[in-house]
Amino acid sequence: MSAQVYDDIFKKLVKSAYRGNMASEIEKMRQNGDEHTDEYIKYASGEGDPDKVVFKVKDCHKDCHINREDNCEASCLFGAIVRDMEGNVVIKQNNCSGCGKCVEVCRHYSLVDKKEFVPLIEILKNRKVPVFAIVAPAFIGQFGPEVTPGKLRAALKRLGFYGMVEVALFADILTLKEALEFDRHVTKEKDFLLTSCCCPIWVSMVKRVYQDLIPHISPSVSPMVACGRGVKHLHPGAKVVFIGPCIAKKAEAKEPDVSDAVDAVLTFQEVKQIFEAVGINPEEMEEDESEHSSTAGRTYARTGGVSRAVSETLNKLRPQKEIKIRAVQADGVKDCREMLKNILGDKIDANFLEGMGCPGGCVGGPKALIDARAGRDFVEKYGQESPYRTPVDNKYVLELLEHLGIKDVEDFLDGEKAKMFTRDFH
């Protein structure tokens, strides 16, 4: 079975769930399918172990390990993919981080990541519980050059979402926090901080492989988690669905200390399939405008965006600080590993280290819809269109913080007041 067939099953499930005839559609798929159809239906409909992201559906080609381009063993960052005596793939669940790298390279769809949308459809249809879509900063341009944020918001509302929030707004909030964390932790020339904001693959690498560096991780949640918690604080009882280019975000959303924030994660590719299944064309929607993020938050989606945002914000908050940010970025898994090794070997002069597990940053994510370079260009242009350069300049960010109980940016250094934006990596 190909990826196309698995995706077709998902689209048929979505279409029939909105129409109210999913049971008969499943029966039809079973009659026309093969011995693996039930398993694909199971994971495309959101069933399976609720704490897992990646599942093995079938044994794969015995010779696929010879070909580097579809070698799931080589792709796994944490040694979770092994083979049994007969050469079949086995997932060592204790090692699996749910990052989805193996799913990216598996050409035979022996491994799949669970799709989480179908269980939400009844909730979206009856509209008794408000469901918010929160979209990653990389979203701009993904659904077509003519699809503005307002048109995407209207398209998501047509699906039944109560509203759409750009995670960039909460990236602004995390930028303020990261700047203050840098100010607090970096007081000598040899001090340094690993920014933890965005990438779950980067964070997993540090936590699982380079534990000696954990004390240097900034104690911040990701913008996704901050946004989910913020929405739920402002709208008690609401559900939150994150939309982005990354399989690993599905795993991050299930981590015990942040699992309160986001109820489901969809990829850009899945959202495109959902629109196709129900006949929604975002380009044709009327504008539904409402966003106030700064350049800083909007450019988190590309490598270097976090470093630039935090550096410019620190200069606004602490213009007299003698030790300025000297940033270095790692672009892709190989670069991340190299940078972390160099830190341990005292071979890096930088004091602010940003890691992105995908080349180009989130715009290069495995479930993005457009080329990483084009994604970067869209993100950069959208960032420059903001009337606010940093969150310090953005009155809407400061108003939002007040609604969330943060009366002054210095409150980010108060453990209790900034609790919703803080993680403990130890």
Number of strands: 11
Order of helix and strand elements from N to C terminus: HHHEHEEHEHEHEHEHHEHEHHHEHEHH
The main sheet comes to:
4 strands, parallel
Extract low-pLDDT stretches.
Answer: none
Summing up helix and strand content along with how strands pair, one would put the structural category as alpha/beta
Helix percentage = 25-40%
Number of helices: 17
Shape: globular
Explain how this protein is built.
There is one protein chain. With 426 residues, the chain is an alpha/beta fold. The protein contains 17 helices and 11 strands. The protein has helices spanning 3-19, 22-32, 37-44, 72-75, 101-105, 121-126, 149-159, 168-185, 200-209, 223-234, 248-252, 268-278, 295-298, 305-317, 333-344, 372-385, 395-403; strands at 54-56, 81-83, 89-91, 111-113, 131-135, 163-166, 193-194, 239-244, 264-267, 327-331, 352-356. The strands form 4 sheets. Strands 6-5-8-9 form a 4-stranded parallel sheet, with helices on both faces. β5 (131-135), α7 (149-159) and β6 form a beta-alpha-beta unit. α1 (3-19) runs antiparallel to α2 (22-32) and α8 (168-185) packs across α10 (223-234). The longest helix has 18 residues, at 168-185. The model has no long low-confidence stretch (mean pLDDT 90).
